[in-house]
Amino acid sequence: MMARKKFWVAVVVIILCIFIFLGRESPQTADKEEEETVTEESIVVGFSQLGAESDWRSANSESMRATFTEENGYKLIFEDGQQKQANQIMAIRTFIQQEVDYIVLAPVTETGWDTVLQEAKDAGIPVIIVDRMVNVSDESLFVCWVGSDFELEGRRAAEWLNQYTQIHDIPPEEINIVNIQGTIGASAQIGRTKGLADASRSNGWNLLEAVPGDFTRAKGREVMESLLKKYNNINVVYCENDNEALGAIDAIETAGKRVGSHITHGEIMVISFDGVNQEAMQHVKDGKIRCIAECNPLHGPRVRTIIEMLEEGGVPDKFYYVEEGMYTHDDTVKSVTVDGKVYPVTVVRHVGGENFH
Ligand code: GZL
Ligand code: ZN
Question: For position 15, what pLDDT does the model report?
């Protein structure tokens, strides 16, 4: 009798063990499912960044990396185009093969995107453009764009100069400007160059020359050196980003000249764009750079808002323009009005921390 009882107890115990074993996951399965869960739920974003030419670009890349994290439910595939459109096109084609959920493109220049964006559209992958614009025949090739109004940035900077010279009674015909341009064909270059060219014409300034500076400090220095050799009357340098401005200041000071605001007493006034580089902001504080038109790089959260809207079946606007201001050394010009809209001017009194919100 006892033996029979022991037998059935053993049978029950074995059955129980089998159930427990089958119910329990092995560490590997657990991880794998965990992994799959993360992968399944994560939204995969392929980001084709144009390069790493400036502090603005680094801040822009950092904003994207800090936004599209696993914790936030994303998997970011980041490709640096190193300033070459061919690399960016290759990256987009790779994203298509990887069947990402979204493609984000920061285009190095405006033209040449129709074919590859058509391939993304045919693959059913939404494309969001950030920063510079793409010039395509069919705007349905991208879902939407978020960035700055570059021509307005240029007009604001030029209007600041116009106000400044009027307040100081400097006749327009005494203003001799050189323009160190950004990467030729980039929306930021096209807009900022146009803003200055139009203002020079309407205000009667002498725009001596516009020269590509590639948005880099090295090129900015190089072109400023040659401009100083070519012209002996330059009194304003309009740099299309801060890295070029730092290069131009290097060249001006190496040539034994001074940067500042007393342009009728031989100083050269430097005007710039971005407001990201801390050294440039320090120069606004100390007066070596008189005005920087802000260009806000923090597009990560803006793109995330758009993706989350799309995920919920929403329809974003086609174009999102970022609000931007101006940084100056002093409050000679308290605000700038363009097309009837008044833009505040922020005098830089301390440098460091987040300039952008
Ligand atoms: C502007 C951006 C420009 C910055 C430069 O949005 O495209 O490119 O002004 C950067 O600093 O290199
Ligand atoms: Zn001063």
Answer: 66
Q: How far apart are the C-alpha atoms of 73 and 324, rounded to whole Å? A: 30
Query: Backbone dihedral region of 251: left (phi > 0), alpha (psi from -120 to 50 degrees) or beta?
Result: alpha
Q: Which two tokens stand for residue 294?
A: 């802000």
Q: Measured between alpha carbons, how far is 272 from 270 in angstroms, rounded to an integer?
A: 7
| Cα 283 to averaged position of ligand 2 atoms, centre (Å) | 11
Phi and psi at 125, nearest 5°, equal -105, 120
Q: Which ligand number lies closest to the CA of residue 283?
A: 2
Distance CA 103, CA 26 (A): 37
188 Cβ closer than 6 Å to some ligand 1 atom: yes
Nearest CA to ligand 1 atom 2: 188
- The number of the ligand 1 atom at minimal distance from the alpha carbon of 147 is 6
Average pLDDT, 10 consecutive residues per value, the chain (357 residues): 68 65 51 50 96 97 98 98 98 98 98 98 98 98 98 98 97 98 98 98 98 98 98 98 98 97 95 97 97 97 98 97 95 96 92 60
Q: Is residue 161 within 6 Å of ligand 1 at its C-beta?
A: no
Model confidence pTM above 0.85: yes
**Crossing angle for the helix pair 300-311 and 55-67, to the nearest 10 degrees:** 40
Query: What is the spatial distance between Cα 215 and Cα 308, in angstroms, rounded to a whole number?
Result: 33
Can you tell me which residue has the tokens 């605001």? 261
C-alpha dist (Å) from residue 297 to 28, 43, 215, 311: 42, 23, 14, 24
Q: What is the pLDDT of residue 129?
A: 98
> 232-257 burial string, b = 16+ CB within 10 Å, else e?
eebbbbbbbbbbbbbbbbbbbeeeee
131 CA distance to ligand 1 middle (Å) = 8
